[in-house]
Design goal:
mainly alpha; single chain
């Protein structure tokens, strides 16, 4: 039996708090950022399905590509960039319930094609939301460059 989502959120919050404690004691944040990213990825994002699972939301073109039997050009993408949601998760680390809410709202992976990643990059949206977007708008980056996605 796997832990509940709240138990997982509590564990992630604990990792974040531990990193903050070390950071406050003078530890460089570069390592802490990686630890936080990995905790979210392994404990939350891949808790139920593998990274490139067919059960994740896909762009329309990525789903068609997958149906062809090929997976070589599929890419795992954070619909809301880490730069947007990591500060929110850090702020939520004091309370497992807040952490759980933030994880559910902001950590929304989607599978896209490599070509679609390049579109986002050319538009300057690799790690940013379009100007004026709400921080929880999982479709904003894709809509701004014409990428259609399945429902999240």
């Amino acid at each position: 039996m796997r832990p509940s989502d709240l138990e997982i959120a509590s564990a992630i919050a604990g990792v974040f708090r531990s990193v903050e404690m070390l950071h406050s004691a003078g530890w460089r944040d570069g390592r802490g950022a990686k630890i936080r990213r990995e905790a979210v990825h392994f404990l939350w994002e891949t808790r139920d399905v593998p990274k490139l699972s067919p059960h994740r939301p896909h762009s329309i073109r990525a789903r068609e590509y997958r149906r062809s039997g090929d997976v070589g050009d599929l890419r795992y993408e954070h619909s809301i960039p880490l730069a947007t949601y990591m500060p929110i998760l850090r702020a939520a680390s004091a309370d497992p319930h807040q952490m759980l809410s933030a994880l559910k709202l902001y950590v929304r992976p989607v599978i896209v094609l490599e070509e679609e990643c390049r579109l986002l990059s050319r538009a300057g949206l690799n790690s940013l939301l379009p100007a004026g977007s709400e921080p929880h708008d999982a479709l904003a980056r894709y809509a701004s460059v014409g990428i259609l996605t399945e429902a999240f």
